[in-house]
């Protein structure tokens, strides 16, 4: 294997596909592949690797004598009970002298785990005094064990999710409530599109994902289902025909609907601003569509029915001379804004009308409808994009790109595998990259490096001697703007020009997300490819394709309005010097620990 070197050698990679294209620009650096904690971690599905690692580090799961986890292997009933008891850190010391089950004697390796689970009501056995520890655990059994561990009152929850499954008739009656809860809470998902596979075997990697999600979200899930029992009178708000998703819930007082102020932070569009002044306990919003000098605005004060419209400084000032100019801007609210447990509630209908939005109320069904003809086509997606572009990104980002070229008229091929990991704290970041180049006319090469930006200094690791160099300027050619690594601003700036389909909720690693599918022509695809990948994919995308060449971008948003995953897919045929080649580009980007403060330290 040849070793690529960090500076001049890396620039020579343009000969990678010399027979296929004229050049490939290589202005990026590379990262080390992180060592696996288990010998066969690479055999696990990508969606399960993080969960397996988390549970291994917590000593909830272990490898076999050879250091293998065997992720695709089916779990036995004894194994699933063991990892749940370990994962919940249950006390296994108070176990009976006499075994509960005749097939799990005291000298059985899982005895204390099975007895503890039985004592806590997590399992009940198979009848006739049997637990069947060696039998394979099915997916509906796994769902039931996890739900029993939650201690949820299942009778409060209606059956909705499983009725949409193609194989809902295959779910055992005794398991239906449990499967419903695991789907609704997001701790389990289907094995395929709209299929749960209740009688299918539960694999080790599936159980690892479910348990990891279960441990991290147990209290939230319990609270979610407690709340579900009280949702009969839930106030729903529909914005431009779609149910609005916002922090908190709406309430009704004296017949007036109040919403958390964050509702308007999210659903006021155009050139908007929002400020809360703690000293005066005032909240203000301003909105302009095109002309910033032709704004609408409102000032509110907690506990005060008096509000001011279109006042461009503080009308609640303690000084009369500051208040006097706004006497003619004064209005009376039907109910005073209020603060409850740190959340500011404001009257919904009056504020929507002040900003010239259409409002209607369906009292029988407790549904408010708001229409705004100036809003973008997909307001939830737009809001998330705006948040990332304006605020930057904190958290972890993992990008994997596979690029493949196959000759149709000639016997040749080339491949690029690019891995990119970023720890980001807005302007400071720590990046690792790894690249593998291979091809029928190129052989095999790979290299890695990492670079750090903290304060006003840049640090780059030289892969030839594993030493760090410090710079006063950015030597990598990459943007310091953390949002560029998450999403290109072109999508935010021109959202309504793209063909976007909003799909139903899906489940990612046990958590629910909204999926958006963006259909892109080739030029749009070029504009949206993340910058860390464009250095490798850009030249290929600029080749001579048919006019209708296209690609797809999938964007997944969490319930917290964060981008948690993106997938870019492009597969088209192009012509180069009279020869035809098939180009395939696949990029997967995962965002994790979003919003987490990450300390970026200088390496030297």
Automatic annotation (TrEMBL):
Look up the signal peptide feature and give its range: none
Keywords (A to Z) from UniProt? Repeat
The SLH domain covers which part of the protein? 35-96, 97-160, 162-225
Q: Does the keyword Ligase apply?
A: no
In its keyword annotation, does this UniProt entry include Repeat? yes
**Which SUPFAM superfamilies does the entry mention?**
Copper amine oxidase, domain N
Q: Name one Pfam family in it.
A: Cu_amine_oxidN1
This one is known as SLH domain-containing protein
Annotated organism of origin: Anaeromicrobium sediminis
């Amino acid at each position: 294997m040849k070793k690529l070197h960090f500076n001049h050698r890396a620039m020579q990679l343009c000969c990678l596909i010399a027979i296929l294209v004229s050049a490939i620009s290589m202005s990026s650096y590379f990262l080390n592949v992180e060592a696996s904690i288990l010998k066969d971690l690479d055999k696990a599905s990508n969606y399960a690797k993080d969960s397996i690692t988390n549970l291994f580090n917590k000593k909830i799961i272990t490898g076999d004598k050879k250091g293998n986890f065997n992720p695709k292997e089916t779990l036995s009933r004894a194994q699933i009970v063991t990892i749940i008891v370990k994962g919940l850190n249950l006390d296994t010391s108070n176990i009976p002298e006499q075994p509960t089950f005749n097939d799990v004697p005291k000298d059985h390796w899982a005895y204390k785990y099975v007895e503890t689970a039985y004592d806590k009501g997590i399992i009940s056995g198979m009848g006739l005094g049997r637990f069947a520890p060696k039998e394979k655990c099915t997916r509906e059994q796994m769902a039931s064990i996890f739900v029993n561990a939650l201690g949820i009152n299942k009778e409060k929850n209606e059956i909705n999710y499983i009725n949409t499954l193609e194989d809902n008739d295959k779910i055992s009656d005794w398991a239906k409530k449990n499967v419903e809860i695991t789907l609704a809470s997001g701790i389990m998902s289907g094995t395929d599109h709209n299929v749960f596979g209740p009688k299918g075997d539960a694999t080790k990697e599936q159980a690892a994902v479910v348990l990891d999600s279960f441990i991290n979200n147990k209290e939230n899930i319990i609270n979610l289902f407690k709340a579900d029992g009280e949702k009969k009178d839930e106030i729903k708000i529909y914005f431009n025909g779609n149910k609005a998703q916002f922090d908190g819930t709406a309430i009704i007082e004296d017949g007036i609907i109040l919403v958390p102020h964050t509702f308007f932070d999210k659903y006021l569009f155009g050139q908007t601003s929002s400020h809360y002044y703690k000293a005066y306990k005032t909240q203000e919003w301003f909105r302009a569509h095109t002309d910033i000098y032709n704004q609408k605005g409102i000032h509110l004060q907690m506990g005060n029915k008096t509000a001011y419209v279109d006042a461009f400084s503080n009308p609640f000032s303690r000084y009369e001379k500051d208040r006097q100019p706004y006497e003619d801007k004064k209005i009376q609210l039907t109910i005073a804004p209020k603060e409850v447990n740190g959340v500011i509630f404001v009257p919904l209908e009056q504020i929507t009308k002040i900003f010239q939005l259409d409002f209607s109320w369906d009292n029988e069904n407790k549904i408010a409808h708001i229409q705004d003809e100036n809003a973008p086509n997909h307001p939830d997606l737009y809001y998330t994009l705006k948040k990332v572009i304006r605020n930057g990104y904190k958290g972890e980002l993992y990008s994997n790109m596979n690029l493949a070229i196959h000759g149709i008229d000639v016997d040749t091929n080339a491949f690029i595998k690019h891995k990119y990991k970023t720890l980001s704290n807005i302007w400071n970041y720590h990046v690792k990259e790894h690249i593998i180049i291979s091809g029928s006319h190129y052989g095999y090469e790979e290299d890695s490096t990492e670079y750090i930006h903290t304060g006003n200094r840049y640090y780059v690791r030289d892969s030839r001697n594993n030493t760090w160099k410090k710079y006063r300027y950015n030597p990598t050619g990459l943007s310091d703007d953390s949002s560029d690594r998450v999403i290109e601003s072109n999508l935010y700036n021109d959202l309504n020009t793209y063909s976007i389909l909003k799909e139903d909720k899906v489940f990612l690693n046990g958590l629910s997300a909204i999926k958006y599918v963006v259909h892109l022509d080739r030029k749009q695809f070029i504009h949206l490819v993340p910058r860390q990948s464009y250095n490798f994919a850009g030249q290929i995308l600029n080749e001579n394709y048919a006019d209708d060449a296209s690609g797809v971008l999938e964007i997944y948003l969490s319930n917290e309005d964060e981008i948690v995953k993106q997938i870019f897919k492009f597969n088209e045929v192009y012509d180069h010097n009279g020869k035809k080649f098939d180009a395939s580009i696949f990029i997967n980007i995962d965002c994790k620990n979003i919003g987490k403060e990450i300390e970026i330290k200088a390496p030297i």
